[in-house]
Amino acid sequence: MSTTVDTARDRMQLAKDAARTVGLLSDSAKRDALLAVADAIEVAADRIIAANGDDLAHGRDNGLSEGLQDRLRLDDVRVSALAAAVREIAALPDPVGRVLDERTLPSGVRLQKVSVPFGVVGAIYEARPNVTVDTTALALRSGNSVVLRGGSAALRTNAVLVAVIREALAAAGIDPQAVQTVDDFGRDGARELMHARGLVDVLVPRGSAQLIETVVTESSVPVIETGAGVVHIVLDASAPLDWARDIIVNAKVQRPSVCNAVETVLVHRDAAPRLVGPVVAALQEAGVTVHGDAEVASLAADIVPATDEDWSIEHLSLDLSMHVVDDLDAALAHIRTYSTHHTESIITADDANAERFLAEVDSAVVMANASTRFTDGGEFGFGAEVGISTQKLHARGPMGLAELTSTKWLARGAGQVRA
Amino acid sequence: MSTTVDTARDRMQLAKDAARTVGLLSDSAKRDALLAVADAIEVAADRIIAANGDDLAHGRDNGLSEGLQDRLRLDDVRVSALAAAVREIAALPDPVGRVLDERTLPSGVRLQKVSVPFGVVGAIYEARPNVTVDTTALALRSGNSVVLRGGSAALRTNAVLVAVIREALAAAGIDPQAVQTVDDFGRDGARELMHARGLVDVLVPRGSAQLIETVVTESSVPVIETGAGVVHIVLDASAPLDWARDIIVNAKVQRPSVCNAVETVLVHRDAAPRLVGPVVAALQEAGVTVHGDAEVASLAADIVPATDEDWSIEHLSLDLSMHVVDDLDAALAHIRTYSTHHTESIITADDANAERFLAEVDSAVVMANASTRFTDGGEFGFGAEVGISTQKLHARGPMGLAELTSTKWLARGAGQVRA
């Protein structure tokens, strides 16, 4: 184990080696280690904030947008929030060692399928220091090593965070090599991570649609795609006005910048005269700009004409696209064309239409008469969220700690051979 | 839906469109359709065997090896076996629509996590007609469309099999576009399939290590890696001779050409004088050539000197590599270096060592005192086997029908919004 050469692959190998011991840690050892990490983050607040100040100054000099600066910025309150998030993850039940299946073969061999850590989890994300801390805590809680590649604008902040976490782990008797960053290798670090098949067991990209697309396309390591949400709400012919108005305003306005916010509302033609006016008025009162087709514009004031682009865009802002459709079939066809398979909801008083929608829409979460904002690990009761998977392999929808584990089969025999 | 242009992508789009209706079929509709497919295969036996004869003649002319010719060959008995396999798959329980999780949120929204078909399953495999039929039946039983790319040496056989299956589906009222082949596009067909992200939901390669490596490296569609098995058996210091001999002979000799056959035996130094002689003698009596290190050669006759290559090779023949190791730590280190993470077994009378081995070995199936030949969907009671996954994402170990499904969350509310 030479330390004279230090490449991205060397660090991933160290993470893999460390995964052997981290994967065997007891529930309490992992919990205690994370509590120590949380304390260490608070103790190191000044050091973290100073490094973050350097990143921010560098960002300002290089034209980093106000929005990205805000996501990057740490202060005392936010550092405390980082530590609090680690403590919440520490308090979650251990996802490792659950017996998921059990059977005795005719020969008497006893089989158990148990949950085990992946080994090494890779993360590629943007300049958000909270993702560094969250991802590390989630990986360690589930017995995994982690290899981090954050946005370069957070290079100094992440370096200090990783150093603080590693110091705390070492003090708690846990191999600090379980936490690695490849930030300092720049784009090469990301590239090595995407091609570290055999060293890294799963890669989770978090961030813009473009970042995710790059990782999904380039990576030979298995990826869990966490995704963009072009989220639809369908107002069926029978949709009650109060549900329609409350759910759409909640789904758009409560937190417009997140993936479970609604982007497009499809209105059944028979309900359009009854619903479009008051729903649009409620949205506009809440500050939303409605992009609508001609029929929407004929039923409400101040409609921005919708372009073809509006149907496929994730606004992530107080903008909403609205389209009148002939019937439920047309709504389902529109969703098939434009959905990113994250979350869709129908508002209807017709149970048969609700059940048809639930059965036919091919998305991670399909709802009837509820706000799409419920698609969230915390809301689902997982206690923490690794991301929201929009792929069908391994995990779909909000991912909790359980989704950071794999399984293995254990077979216990007494000399049995196959007949 | 133009039929004037016919590309590999067109066919995948047809498979995707068909998946919508196939995914909603009832248990009995899927079962009846497969029974009709089985009947149709038997009725078409002459047509299938004639096409297979053409493939065989073409293969002989082009130097196809005897072994590959045998795997390609169909006769009346083998065609009946194809039909019988389809009937067995028809008789399995429907893996779709199982409720895997259920919870009511504080707001009263009712959540269900249910199993759903993937949509479109892609398969890339070699010139084995039984894989064409098996894979299609497994995909349809789990409500999926399938896009097939078999070995070119089976082109004519597969074309007839696919035609027969599609005719039977159409007669049963099921969209025949659910079954597609891209064989006739040659290498381009395989390439399009590996890059059909958005059309194909999961790709399952079956065949040689090289085929799997190519698919894993090149594909941007999520892959389930089914794998090569450099399978190890460890003889601990306390291994009983009868278990050691019976299990190793069974694991090597019963069917040497399959992935769960043992390739390497690691013998604890303390047990070597007691075990190597009789185990090697039993193997040699069964026709096995033992490749051993110097220590093995000093304890038994007719040992072929092992080369470095022997430790990483999947013999798939009546050859076995044998190595004496210092202790359990050394055995675990050897397995970490050379295992393909398929199946490993320890033979021991020491429960603590057995449990340590079960905990520390990072393979899909880890055994104590049982033959590695038990790693098999049929043996595990799954009724059918899609393959044996050696990756950690989604499925690990023998895969049954359940592993050809994804999940989705259904949320049923009454106007709830997020607080």
Automatic annotation (TrEMBL), chains A, B:
A Pfam entry, by short name: Aldedh
CDD domains: ALDH_F18-19_ProA-GPR
Annotated compartments: Cytoplasm
Biological pathway: Amino-acid biosynthesis; L-proline biosynthesis; L-glutamate 5-semialdehyde from L-glutamate: step 2/2
UniProt keyword terms in alphabetical order: Amino-acid biosynthesis, Cytoplasm, NADP, Oxidoreductase, Proline biosynthesis
Any one cellular-component term (Gene Ontology): cytoplasm
Main location: cytoplasm
Entry superkingdom: Bacteria
GO BP term, pick one: L-proline biosynthetic process
Annotated ranges, domain Aldehyde dehydrogenase: 7-288
Xref: InterPro entries: Ald_DH/histidinol_DH, Ald_DH_C, Ald_DH_N, Aldehyde_DH_dom, G-glutamylP_reductase_CS, Glu-5-SA_DH, GPR_dom
Molecular-function GO term, any one: glutamate-5-semialdehyde dehydrogenase activity
NCBIfam families linked: PRK00197.1 (NF001221), proA (TIGR00407)
Function: Catalyzes the NADPH-dependent reduction of L-glutamate 5-phosphate into L-glutamate 5-semialdehyde and phosphate. The product spontaneously undergoes cyclization to form 1-pyrroline-5-carboxylate.
Alphabetized PANTHER family for the sequence: DELTA-1-PYRROLINE-5-CARBOXYLATE SYNTHASE, GLUTAMATE SEMIALDEHYDE DEHYDROGENASE
Family assignment from sequence similarity: Belongs to the gamma-glutamyl phosphate reductase family.
Name listed for the protein in its UniProt record: Gamma-glutamyl phosphate reductase
Protein species of origin: Microbacterium protaetiae
Record lineage: Bacteria, Bacillati, Actinomycetota, Actinomycetes, Micrococcales
